[in-house]
Structures are given as C-alpha cells and as structure tokens.
Input
Amino acid sequence: MTSPSPLPDAAPLPVLHRDGMMLVIDKPSGLAVHAGPKGGETLSDHLDALRFGLPRRPELAHRLDKDTSGCLVLGRHPKALALLGKLFADGRVEKTYLAIATGAPAADAGRIDQPLAKRSPTRGWWMQTVPRGAPGAQEAVTDYAVLHRAGGLAVLALSPRTGRTHQLRAHLAHIGAPILGDAIYGGASRLPGGPRLHLHARRVVVPLARTAPPVAVTAPLPPHICETLDVLGCDAVAIAAAADAFAGAAATPL
Output
C-alpha cells in the first residue's frame, strides 16, 4: 500500500488525500477540532474551504487533541460519515502515531492494556488509569515500539487499539514515559522543539472499499518534532520510515 501523493495546496489546511468519500488533512499542532471555553480558531473555521465542489462541507470522522498534529480524516457527505464512523468504531482503521517521550519503556516493544476513566467531573477530558471494574472505567489498549533512545528520551511508534480520549498520553504517563511537552500528563520540554506536545498522527490506513486496497496516508513530521529528533541525533526520514513499518503487533502486556 502506498500513500496518495499530496494534492496541490489549494486549501488553507494541507490536504494529504481526497476522494469522493473522504479527505485526510494534515492538522497542525495547536488547532482545536472543537470550540473550547476560551474560544479561538478551530477546524470548523476551515471546513467550508474544503468542500471541493460539494454542496456540504466535510465533517470530522474522528478527532485529534488540539496539540496533536497529523492525519485527520473527514467525511465528505452523510453516507461517507456513517461508513467512516463505523470503521473507526469497529477498530478497522489502522492508526500509527510517532511520539517522543521523557524516560522510556523498559522493553523495546510491548502492549499497554490499562483501563482509563475521567479524573473528575471538573477536569474536562483529563484521564487517569484505573483498575478494571472501577466506576467509569473504559478498556484501553496501546501497542508500542521504541525506535530510538538517547539523552533520557525515547522515540516511539504507537498503535492505539482502542480510541479513548488522551489514551496515548495517559498510557505513556502510566508507564513512566510521558510525552515530551505534555503539560497535563507530566512531560515538560526544554529542548529546541519547544514546549509543544511531541505527538504526531503519522499514518492512517482506511479500508473504504471491499474490492480495493485500503487507502494509506502519511503526514510529514512537523518542524518541532524534527528539531528534537535532530538534537537526539536521529534522521527524521529514517524515523518516519521506521514508524510506517511498525505493525503494532501484540506483545507482552505491561
């Protein structure tokens, strides 16, 4: 499977893939997908420019946190949204993220199988790990592979097997390796990449049609992650290729 070539930059947000059913855009870090209590620019401000001739503007098929960059899938009409929503709900969309974490997992690959629940009714979407059977507990599973270790940091490929809010951030904090730049879960950053969250939705693979190969799309690594990789002595192109090759195979649960 190959990633579709990026389209000409005819929209205010980079479009990585376009067909009759969906768009995949490269969401920048710092752009919220939903309006928050403080207001400000959101993805909704850009959706009309992404119609590409259709009468309706596209809508979210899933979501990314405000500070997470990378592949974001939009459905172009109600039928497409219904199909995409089912694919995501059934876990049939393959998602690969790249993260830089403070600290590192002990194993080079593994599975984090740990339920999550809201921290409190007043903390919005902030999550915490909880025992199975605890009030509000939701099953949450993440596969990971360590791509590079240096300077007390780790570059990770991540594959969420469930789609819980803040899942990757809470899971990595749970194993003592919070994501760099994560002010909520404990990964403060003083590196040249700055305080931004070092979490990027690198790749999505969407099985849109039964009679055609799945659509695979990749998003280029953002500048702040590339700057930190350079400090760690990593080649960003090689790291991106290693993340793309990560299959997220099940490993020993942590």
In short: The chain is about 15% helix and 25% strand. Residues 1-11, 248-252 have pLDDT under 50 and may be disordered. The domain at 15-245 is CATH 3.30.2350.10 (Pseudouridine synthase).
